Amino acid sequence: MSELDIYYKVLELDREATLEEVNQAYKDLAFVWHPDRIPTDNIRLREKAQRKLQEINEAREKLRSLKAKYQTKPKESTTKTAEKATHAPKQNPDLSGKDFSRANLTNRDFSCRNMSYANLSGANLSDTFMHKVNLRGANLSDANLFRANLLLADLREANLRSANLIGADLSGADLRGANLTGARMRSGERLLVKLVGANLSGAIMPDGTIYD
User: Fold this and answer.
1) Residues 111 and 191 in one domain
2) What is the 3-state secondary structure (H, E, C) of the chain?
3) Average pLDDT over residues 171-178
């Protein structure tokens, strides 16, 4: 079985699946296997869920790059290639400081993009992919980040006041100095945000206390 087939199998898809179907399969499986959905006293199952979620994340990331590799078009002449390179739009344009206030950005992919100091107040970012995104100093107040993927995101000094973080994955995210005052992260006593390995040093927590 090829590497590509293994990743499709993890996401329970066949080779004909589109990138959109890959993203949807990831979201469905990440929701099912999210460790926070499992009782804290069931350590064995929570550990299994964490391993499964890592596999799902890896499959989704690898599959995107592998698909790009296998779908590369045949080589063109040097002249044509150079011509295209000259006129081709830049990939992953800098979005720092951009105004996305109240925008509907659900299901979009901003992975690895620079969105530092962007205005995302009140924006709908539910189910959005923001793996390794740079959101340093960004305004995310009142934003809806339901089930957003913020793995390894840079959220230093970000404004997350009153943001909806239910179901969001902030594993490994840098939240130093972030303002989380009033952010929705719990249902009763149950934490519904994944913060495994996140750096919360100096962050203002939802209740107003500063994380030490």
Assistant:
1) yes
2) CCHHHHHHHHCCCCCCCCHHHHHHHHHHHHHHCCHHHCCCCCHHHHHHHHHHHHHHHHHHHHHHHHHHHHCCCCCCCHHHHHHHHHHCCCCCCCCCCCECCCCECCCCECCCCECCCCECCCCECCCCECCCCECCCCECCCCECCCCECCCCECCCCECCCCECCCCECCCCECCCCECCCCECEECCEECCECCCCECCCCECCCCCECC
3) 95
Mean pLDDT of 164-192: 93
Structure tokens that stand for 105 in this block: 């950005």
**130 neighbors 110 (Cβ within 8 angstroms):** yes
Q: At a CB cut-off of 8 Å and minimum separation 6, what does 199 contact?
A: 173, 174, 175, 176
Beta bridge partners of 188: none
Residues 6+ apart with CB under 8 A from 16: none
Query: Domain check: are 146 and 202 in the same one?
Result: yes
- Domain of 14 in residue numbering reads as 3-70
Residue 70: the pLDDT is: 57
pLDDT at 87: 45
Residue-wise pLDDT tens digits, 66-84: 666 655 444 444 445 444 4
Domain count within the chain: 2
